[in-house]
Design a protein that fits this description.
Nucleotidyltransferase, domain 5, alpha+beta, about 475 residues, about 35% helix, five-stranded mixed beta sheet, 2 domains
Length: about 475
């Protein structure tokens, strides 16, 4: 059996699969986010360890005893700062923290960053956060001896090793993504060196062995391998079998992701598309990323005094976009805007606007933002032959119909099951423990496919044009 641990923003999830890749056990523990100032988003790394302990204790002892490997998945871009004794120096600055926008712009103005990483330096990436710490918390910066991504701090607890893997490291702005290695020049530009960085492995390789004291404490076999794992989206790509060119998935989680696998490295930073290493060797992937997907729907549900499921369950058949437009930029936006300052808006509200109309506008706004991502990927030459839908938002057929019609592309929904980051991490554990390759990352059986509504494609094209006009109108307003 193999355990996949997925360290998300809202919780840690553990999934155990057997040799046949069926799920035999799972457990989870919640996490909270601290937002002490506008644009800030932090977590305490000790909470990740406490959550892992909850997960290990919740899994059946007979399952833990049979484990042969562990894989890791996790939220990307977080800056976990350690001193020489591996003590945490401050709360981790998370992926959706935008305080380092000025530092990001400074680094992005250096042409070496786009040339070597293949990406814009976004405020949420790791490197600008270190510059922010240097400027605003210089005493902490002077003590930094290691910079770890969130899941790699969990790995340190599991193995005692400072290790990162390619897919997560690609989101730091320090990785030469073509060479799959740290760039000494980019590290020096942030007053760091290779010594501050963890050792690099591929996601399917062994990164270390489980510490003996943890084996005894939780009843796990001694010295089982811990795989390199993957950033959350790359691990999800492994989980749903998106490992070859033409394959893609749309993830409707807290953030929204349009993820496409590539068999070569084809960056185009100006599109604001993320071009990262995949979690398996000699493979890359591209992502269009929006910062608020189900986050936007949950925000509106709270405003309306209900929950997301209630909002979406009574919408009926798909309707053409109405007068109300929603811009889902609650905390800035990545693809294609690269704008940390932009904020969301409802436009076109009138007396006739009711809760259902506003709900449809939220779903449409997120869907149009995903269409912007699709167009950005297409500008790099990436083509999508098959689109899978995953994440909590994929439970809404109305939302999926909205996306299918907005993109003019069928959206397939896997059979019931968990094929996300934890499942992908467990698959990477199999690869590390057995030497298997990407061939085990097959795509799941499809439960249903939702086709675009041909009668509404024109209306959604017009709706997207109005969305883009509203997007232009609100830029610069805060």
């Amino acid at each position: 059996m193999y355990l996949g641990l997925d360290l998300g923003t809202s919780g840690l999830k553990g999934v155990v699969i057997g040799d046949d890749q069926t799920i035999v056990a799972e457990a989870s523990a919640p996490l909270t986010v601290s937002r002490p100032h506008d644009g800030w988003s932090e977590q305490t790394p000790a909470d990740w360890i406490a959550a892992a302990e909850v997960v290990f204790r919740a899994l059946p002892p007979q399952v833990l005893k049979a484990l042969r490997g562990i894989g890791l998945s996790g939220q990307m871009h977080g800056a976990t700062l350690l001193d020489a004794a591996d003590n945490v120096l401050r709360p981790c600055i998370l992926w959706n923290d935008t305080r380092a926008f000025a530092e990001a712009a400074r680094l992005d103005s250096d042409p070496r960053f786009r040339a070597l990483t293949g990406n814009i330096v976004f405020p949420g990436f790791t490197a600008p956060k270190l510059l922010w710490v240097k400027v605003h918390e210089p005493e902490i910066f002077r003590k930094v001896r290691k910079v770890l991504l969130p899941k790699d701090y969990l790995r340190l607890w599991l193995t005692g090793e400072h290790v990162a893997e390619m897919s997560d490291a690609a989101g730091t702005s320090w990785l030469d993504c073509a060479r799959r290695d740290w760039s000494d020049d980019l590290l020096a530009a942030t007053d760091l060196s290779r010594e501050h960085m963890p050792r690099l492995v591929e996601g399917s390789e062994v990164s270390g062995r489980l510490r003996a004291d943890l084996s005894i404490r939780f009843g796990l076999p001694a010295g089982i391998p811990v795989a390199g794992g993957g950033g959350d989206n790359a691990a999800s790509g492994i989980g749903v079998g998106v490992v070859k060119a033409g394959q893609a998935f749309v993830s409707l989680g807290t953030s929204g992701v349009l993820f496409a696998a590539n068999d070569g490295y084809r960056p185009d930073a100006a599109t604001a598309v993320h071009t990262f290493c995949h979690a398996i060797p000699n493979t890359w992937h591209q992502m269009g990323v929006i910062l608020a997907a189900t986050d936007a729907l949950n925000w509106f549900a709270g405003l309306a005094g209900t929950n997301a499921a209630t909002l979406t369950s009574s919408l009926g058949p798909l309707r053409a976009p109405g007068k109300v437009r929603f811009l889902p930029y609650l905390g800035g936006e990545r693809t294609p805007l690269n704008d940390a300052a932009i904020r969301g808006a409802f436009i076109g509200l009138e007396h006739a606007t009711d809760r259902e109309a506003a709900t449809r506008a939220v779903l449409e706004g997120v869907s149009f933002a995903i269409r912007d991502c699709r167009d950005a990927l297409a500008a790099t030459g990436t083509r999508i032959n098959r689109l899978l839908a995953v994440g909590g938002g994929s439970r809404s057929d109305y939302w999926l119909a909205t996306i299918a019609t907005a993109l003019g592309s069928p959206v397939s929904v896997p059979v019931a099951g968990d094929f996300g980051g934890a499942f992908g991490a467990a698959r990477l554990a199999i690869m590390a423990a057995t030497g298997a390759g990407a061939e085990i990352a097959t795509q799941p059986a499809i439960d249903r496919t939702i086709d675009p509504d041909p009668a509404l494609i024109g209306a959604f094209d017009e709706g997207h044009a109005r969305f883009r006009a509203a997007q232009s109108a609100i830029r610069g307003l805060t």
